[in-house]
């Protein structure tokens, strides 16, 4: 079975790639260690980084692993898996 890639798909993938790049830059900007100053633990910054990681993973799974065109059960399963994974990471960090 072959899939047909349309111009609309290419635009969506390019837009998602730009969003992933922007999220990476924002994550880097949030990190206190890149400026050469003291890098200390910060719960709000860590929570923001974890949330950005969740968004990045969801975009990658949806657009670059072709889950957006998969059956509904698979889309919901991957969303549930990602939510469980990132919630566990957050709980482990906060605990």
TrEMBL record:
Parts of the chain that traverse the membrane: 12-31, 43-61
InterPro entries: Cyt_c_oxidase_su4_prok
UniProt topology in membrane: Multi-pass membrane protein
Keyword annotations: Cell membrane, Membrane, Transmembrane, Transmembrane helix
One Pfam family hit: COX4_pro
Subcellular location: Cell membrane
UniProt superkingdom: Bacteria
Coiled coil: none
Protein name per UniProt: Cytochrome C oxidase subunit IV family protein
Organism of provenance: Mycolicibacterium iranicum
